[in-house]
Every structure is written in C-alpha cells, then in structure tokens.
Amino acid sequence: MEQILAPLFAAGEDESRGRAVRLLWLALHGVWSLHAGGQLGIVTREPMEDVARDMADIFLAGLRAGPDYPGTPITTQGT
Question: Which residue of 8, 29, 38, 47 pairs with 63 in a disulfide if CB–CB is 3.0 to 4.6 A?
Fold first, then answer.
C-alpha cells in the first residue's frame, strides 16, 4: 500500500506516507470488523464493499488535495 500512496507524497515524506498507510488500513479494518461482527447495519445499510470503496475514495481525495486544503487537521510534528 505504501507504493500505491507514494505518488501522493513528496520525497522525504516517508513518515507521513507511513502514517497515511496505517490510517487507511485502520479505517478499512474498522469497516470490515463492523461487517464481520454484524454491526455495520447500525451505521449504514450499504454493502460493506461500497462503504469501504467510498471511505478509501474520500481518504485518497483528501491526500490528493494536499496539506493546504481548508479543514486539514493541524498536527504536531513528530507525534
């Protein structure tokens, strides 16, 4: 997944890319876990595949928008 996300990050942004990979995996795992536990229906009636695809699309759109996009969370470097 790091290779897939690599074009969205500048050279030397390995830490940021790694964080993005972990967050994407966590989000996808959360969708799958809710589905596997029969709890996804509490959140949505959409099929798990559609929810996972939408979540990934929105995540990637945020990465493509870049850090100057309004609403980008402020983070403390090194955390």
Answer: 8
* Dihedral over alpha carbons 36, 41, 42, 48 (to 10 degrees): 60
Long-range own/partner contacts, residues 40-45 (CB < 8 A, 24 or more apart): none
Residue whose tokens read 């980008």 = 72
What does the alpha-carbon distance between residue 21 and residue 45 come to, in Å, rounded to a whole number? Answer: 27
pTM of the model: 0.75
Distances from the Cα of 60 to the Cα of 5, 7, 38, 44, angstroms? 8, 11, 27, 21
Q: How far apart are the first and last CA of the chain?
A: 22
What's the rounded Cα separation, in Å, for the pair 73 and 76?
10
Q: Which residue has the higher pLDDT, 33 or 77?
A: 33
